[in-house]
Amino acid sequence: MLDRKTCRKKAEELVSKMTITEAASQLLHQSPAIERLGIPEYNWWSEGLHGVARAGIATVFPQAIGMAASFDEAFLGKEADVIATEARAKYNAASRRDDRDIYKGLTYWSPNINIFRDPRWGRGHETYGEDPLLTEKMGNSFIKGLQGDGKSGFLKIAACAKHYAVHSGPEALRHGFDVSPSEKDLNETYLPAFKGAVKEAGVEAVMTAYNSVFGEPCSANDRLINEILKKEWGFEGHIVSDCWAVRDIHESHHFTKRPQDSAAIAVKRGCDLNCGCTYEYLMMAYDEGLVTEEEIRTAAIRVFTTRYLLGMFEEKDPYGDIPYSVVNCEEHHALALEAARKSMVLLKNDGILPIDKNKISSVAVIGPNAYSAKALYGNYNGDSGRWCTNLDGIRAALEDDVRLYYSKGCDIVDEKEDPLAKPGKYLSEAEEIASISDVTILCLGLDADLEGEEGDTGNAFASGDKMDLLLTLPQRKLCDRILSLGKPVVIVINSGSALDLSAYEDKSSAIIQAWYSGEAGGEALADILFGRVSPSGKLPLTFYYNDNALPEFTDYHMAGRTYKFLKDKPWYPFGYGLSYTEFAYENTEADVTENGVRIKTDIKNTGSFDANEIAEVYIRYEEQAFEKPVHHLADFKSLLIKAGSMETVMFDLPLSRFASVLEDGKEAVLDGQYTVFIGGTQPDLRSFELTGRRPEEIRFEVRDGKIEKC
Hints:
TIM Barrel, 24 strands, 5-stranded antiparallel β-sheet, 20 helices
C-alpha cells in the first residue's frame, strides 16, 4: 500500500542523487529528462475543467458553472472520475509512444474554486458560482473524483485547486493588482473552498493567483502559503504558480527588481513549481546566495513526491492498463447527456413548455448560438467526436411531419461575415420563418470568445470581462424583431454568466438558461423542450438587472455582492429554477443533536412528471449585529422523486453551520435567535414573487454555545 510518507522518502532519495542544477531544472513546468537517473521529461501542465482539455478528442461535459447549477456533488464526482479515466487512457497511450508534450500528463490544473463575486468577470464560468459552501462541496467532490478512491495509495490523477487566493478579476489588471480584503471577507468568502479542498478533499496541488494580497504577490505570499495553507491547514502537496505569475513579481508587481530575485523569493516562500520560465534563473539566484541548496531540493522533493504518488516510477500501477478505447465512449457520452440535462435552468414558463410535438406542424430555430459548437464548449475544453448543437438536437427530436426552419438571425457580436452586405443581413429571413412557424426557439447568449481569460484568442470584450450584462447589440436587434411578431418564442441562453434579458421577459413564452452545455447540449435541450425530462437545475449565482448599482469591479468587499449581501431585487435569484412539476415540503421536523441540528422533511411530487428536486437549506441569524449575510446556504441535496411519490430527506447541520465570521476573521456561534429555512428556493422576496411559495421555517436559539429549538 503506497502512502505519502513512503513516496516522500523515495523522492528524497532520488533528489539526493541529483546535482543542484538538475534539481532546479525539475521546478519548471516543462521539466527535462535526467537520463542517468531514469527520469523522463515531464510537462506538468494539463487541464481538465470539464473534460480532458486541449489534448484532442475527449468527452466534453457542461462547463463548471453549469454543473454548479445541478447542485449534485455526487454526480459531479462521477463526472470527475470519467475525466480522470480518460486522462489516464490518453497518458498511457502517449507515454507508450514517448509523447510527453504539454496537456498529456497526470497533473491536472483543475478545479477553479474562486468565488464568482462579480457578474462581469470573464472567467466566472470556470467556477462553481457565488456561494462558498456550494463551491466547497462541489469542488471537494470534483477533486476526490479526479484523484481516485485511494484504495491502492496511488493518485488516479493529481487535482489542483486554483487560484489561491482572492482572485476574480478584473482580468485586465490581474498581473499587477493588489487586493487587501477585510479579514471577515477573506475568511467568510474567499478562503473556505480552498480550506475544504485541503482538509476535506486532500487536494494534491494548489495554484497561486496572479494578483497580490496584502501587498505580497500570491506566488510569494508568506501569509497565504506558509501561515494559512501549510501551518494552519496542514497542506502537504506541492504549490504551482499560475502561468508566468512569477515573472509578474518583478515586471508587474515590482515587488522585486530582477528575475533571479523573483525566482528566489517564490521558492523560499514555498512555490515549488513555476508554470513559466522564471525558474530558469534559479541557479543564478543560487550563485548569488539568494536561495539555498536546501530550499531548492525541498521544492524538488515535494514535486517528486507527487510523481511517485502518481506511480510514474512504478513498473505496474492500478491505472496503467486503462485503454484508449474508453475515450469519448458511449458510456461517457451518456453521462455527458445526463450532466447537460441536470445543468439547465428553466427561468420562465407561461405553460408553453413542454412543447407537444403532436400539436405543432412547424418550428423555427433562430440565433447565433443555434448551430454553434462554441456555445457548447466554453473554455478549457477538449474536442468531442460527437457534439450536438441546439439545432441538431431539436432536429433529431422532431417527427418527420414537423417542418423545421433555421436562420442564424445575426452574428453573435457584429455583422462581420459579409463585408459587402448591409448590417442585419439575416434579419428578414429570421422574421419570415418565425412568422410562419408555430413556435420559435431563439438561441442567444455568449461564447468563450466573449467571456473568458485575458489573452484568449478572439475576445471581443476588454480582456475577457463583460462590459455590461446585456446581449450584444446585434442580438438585441434580433430579439426586438422576432418578439414584435407576437408569436410564441422560447429563449435559450447559452452563456457562462448572468445576463439581463428582462426587457424580453414579458414578450417571451419561456426562458431557459442552458450554459455552455457540453457535447450533448443540443440533445439535452431538446429533451427539455419536448418534455422527455423535466428541467431541474437552479441558479448558482444571482442574475442581476443591468442597471443594478454593482460595486466597483476592483472592490473585493462583499457588501452589495451575491445573494448573501445584496440589497437590491435581482432579476432572478440564486437557488431559483422551475420544473414541469410541483413539490410540496411536508412534515418538517427538527431535533437538536450532540453535534448540531438534524432536520427531516418529506418532499412530495404533486405533479405528473418524474423529476429531480434540489432541496435547499438556509440559515438566518436574526440579531442585529455587524455586517452579516441576509442568510446563507447551509446545505442542499438533489434527489429524484417520481410523480405522485414522496421522499424523506435528512439534513445534519453541525453547529459550525450556524457560525458567523466576525470582523477579525474568527468564526463564532453567537448567542441569539436563528431561523432555518427548508424548501426549493432561498427565502427571499424575489423567489416568493416568482414561485408564490415560501420555504418551511424552524426557529432555534443559541445560548452559551448550546442550541435549542424555540
